[in-house]
Design goal:
This protein is α/β, with parallel strands linked by helices. Helices cover 49% and strands 12% of the residues. It has 19 helices and 14 strands. Helix 9 packs across helix 11, helix 12 crosses helix 14 and helix 17 packs across helix 18.
Length: 419
C-alpha cells in the first residue's frame, strides 16, 4: 500500500494467500487509496465465493494458479488497455464540459442557470427558447449533464436540417423494405436515447404528422418504426428548442397546441447577447483562452478600445458569432495586441452609442422591433398595475397564462424582483 501511495503504479497483481494480511483485505485498502488502480487477484485454491467477493471489492480480474505466460500477458494488456480507455474518456469528458460551459455573470444568464439547476434533476420536459446562436444547445447539455440520466446517452436531432420525408424515419426508425430506399433496418433516435435524453433542436420546423407521433411518445412512452405494427416502450427525457414564436405558429395552424403544452412544462428563455453585454468581456477572454490552448497558439490580448467596440456591436448571431469573430482575429492579427483596426469591418462600422442611449436596443429586423415594443409595453403596464399579474392581464386583454409566457420569453422577471 505504501508503494502505491509513493509511486505511479499502473497495475497490481495480488495473491489471495499472503503472510500477515489476507489479499482481499489488502484489495479493500488499496481501493480506498487508489480507487481507479486495476488490481488482479491470484489464487491457487479459488472458489466462486472468493471470486465474487474480490469483484465486489473492485478487482479487475481473477486468475488461478498455475500462471501461464499467455494468461498473464493477456490480463496485462486488458488492464492497461482499460485504464487508457478510461483516461481518454475522462479527458474527452473534460473537453466536452469545457466546450459546453455557459460563461457570464449577468442577471439574465444567472436566471437561466437557476432554471437549469431546478429542472435538471427532474424528468420534466423542457422547452428552450431563444435566438439562433444564443446557446440553446448548451442549456440542453447542461440539463442532461446535471440530471440523473447523465451516464446515459444524449441524442441530438436538428429538426430543421432533416427533410420532411426523412424526419419520421430518423426519429422513430424503420424496418427493411418499409419504403423505397429502405434497404436496411434503422433504429430511430428515440430508441437510441432510451433511458437517456433526446434534444429536439428547432422543434418548430416539424411537420404536423411528425408532431403527432412525438406527442404519442410523450403521452404513452411508445414508438413504432415505419413499416412495423409493433410498438416499443422507451424511457426518454425530452428537451426541445426553438427560435420561433410557437404561439404564433399555433395560431397559424402549423404547430399543435397540445404538443406545445407537453413540451413547455419547464420553459427556459435564453437571452440574446445584446441583453447581456456585460458578459462579452468574459466571453471574449474565455474563447481566446480556449482557442490558444487547443491550437497551441501564442496568447494575445484585446486592447480596451477593441473590447469596448466588441461590447457595443449588435451580435445578430449572438454568442456563436462572437466566438467566430474572436477566433478570426486571433488568427489574422500579427501582433500580440488586438486593436480596433484588427476587428472585422462589420464590427468597426457599428454605430457608437452615447451615454444616453447606451442601454437602448437598436432593432435590426421587423421581428426585433416588434419584440422590443411588446416588451416595453408589458413592462409599462405592469408598472402601472404595481406588477399585479392578474390585473395587468385583464387590462391588456390577454389570458394570465399568456402573460406569464411573455414574462418568461422577455426575461422580465428580474425587473419584477427589483421593483
Amino acid at each position: 500500500i505504501g508503494v502505491v501511495q509513493r509511486e505511479a503504479v499502473n497495475l497490481v497483481f495480488l495473491d489471495i494467500k499472503m503472510p500477515g494480511m489476507d489479499g482481499l483485505e489488502v484489495l479493500g485498502r488499496l481501493k480506498k487509496v487508489a480507487e481507479s488502480l486495476p488490481v488482479v487477484m491470484i489464487s491457487g485454491h479459488a472458489t466462486v465465493a472468493t471470486a465474487v467477493e474480490a469483484t465486489k471489492l473492485g478487482a479487475f480480474d481473477f486468475i488461478e494458479k498455475p500462471l501461464t505466460t499467455e494468461r498473464v500477458l493477456l490480463t496485462i494488456r486488458n488492464a492497461l488497455g482499460f485504464t487508457q480507455l478510461r483516461d481518454e474518456n475522462r479527458s474527452l469528458q473534460r473537453v466536452i464540459e469545457v466546450r459546453t460551459e455557459m460563461v457570464g455573470a449577468s442577471p439574465s444568464l444567472n436566471q437561466v442557470l437557476e432554471s437549469v439547476r431546478r429542472a435538471a434533476p427532474t424528468t420534466a420536459t423542457v422547452l428552450i427558447r431563444g435566438e439562433s446562436g444564443a446557446g440553446k444547445e448548451l442549456v440542453a447539455r447542461m440539463i442532461h449533464r446535471n440530471s440523473l440520466r447523465s451516464r446515459e446517452r444524449f441524442i441530438q436531432v436538428n429538426c430543421a436540417a432533416i427533410p420532411d420525408d426523412l424526419i419520421e424515419s430518423e426519429l422513430f426508425g424503420h424496418e427493411k423494405g418499409s419504403f423505397t430506399g429502405a434497404t436496411e433496418k434503422q433504429i430511430g433516435k428515440f430508441e437510441q436515447a432510451d433511458r437517456g435524453t433526446i434534444f429536439l433542436d428547432e422543434v418548430g420546423d416539424m411537420s404536423l404528422k411528425t408532431q403527432a407521433k412525438v406527442l404519442r411518445v410523450l403521452q404513452e412512452g411508445e414508438v413504432e418504426r415505419l413499416g412495423s405494427s409493433r410498438t416499443m416502450k422507451v424511457d426518454v427525457r425530452v428537451i426541445a428548442a426553438t427560435n420561433k414564436d410557437l404561439e404564433q405558429e399555433i395560431e397559424k395552424g402549423t404547430f399543435r397546441e397540445d404538443l406545445f403544452f407537453r413540451l413547455s412544462v419547464i420553459p427556459i428563455a435564453v437571452p440574446p447577447l445584446r441583453e447581456r453585454a456585460d458578459d462579452i468581456t468574459l466571453l471574449v477572454k474565455y474563447f481566446a483562452d480556449l482557442f490558444t490552448k487547443e491550437n497551441n497558439f501564442r496568447p494575445k490580448r484585446f486592447s480596451p478600445d477593441a473590447m469596448a467596440m466588441l461590447q457595443r456591436y449588435r451580435w445578430k448571431g449572438n454568442v456563436r458569432e462572437l466566438k467566430n469573430t474572436v477566433e478570426r482575429v486571433l488568427i489574422m492579427t500579427p501582433g500580440d495586441v488586438i486593436g480596433e483596426d484588427d476587428l472585422p469591418e462589420t464590427v468597426r462600422s457599428s454605430p457608437r452609442q452615447t451615454p444616453q442611449d447606451a442601454g437602448q436596443e437598436r432593432a435590426g429586423t421587423l421581428r426585433e422591433f416588434k419584440e422590443s415594443a411588446e416588451r416595453t409595453f408589458l413592462v409599462e403596464k405592469l408598472r402601472e398595475n404595481n406588477w399585479n399579474i392578474t390585473r395587468t392581464a385583464e387590462v391588456i386583454g390577454t389570458p394570465r397564462s399568456n402573460l406569464y409566457k411573455k414574462l418568461e420569453l422577455y426575461n422580465i422577471k428580474q425587473e419584477i424582483d427589483s421593483a
